[in-house]
Design goal:
Layout: E1 2-4, H1 6-13, H2 17-24, E2 31-34, H3 35-50, H4 55-74, E3 76-78, H5 82-93, H6 102-113, E4 117-119, H7 123-126, E5 133-135
Parallel strand pairs: 1-2, 1-4, 2-3, 4-5
Length: 139
Amino acid sequence: MYLLDTDTLSRFHAGDARVQAHRDRFDPAEVATTTITRIEILQGRFAFILKAADGEQLQRAFEWLRRSEKLLEQIAVLPIDAAAAAEFDKLLQNKKLKKIRRGDLLIAAMTLARDATLVTRNVKHFRQVPGLKVENWLD
């Protein structure tokens, strides 16, 4: 299974041919994302709406929200389960990972719990997590 990180899912949403080409190599059931990525994408869309400078920007922001919601309906969004929570607890104990932000630790934990591969542009950052399989479909 391949779990798309926020950066990769955002590029897929924007129509990036590189991500699409990789995704097309797999059964759609083998490519998913995490509930953390869902949260990050929707938070960004909500912020864009709330910060709109004028009506035109507000409409554009709302359209982006609708498109993001539609995308998230078309890809499996994995929940946080007991196995992911246990992996998260392990990662929190690793002092070398203290500088990694909490959302990224949660994504790593969910990926480890499913023995999946995380697809992210942030390879250097995530390779600090022991045992985490990481691929970059953008570079």
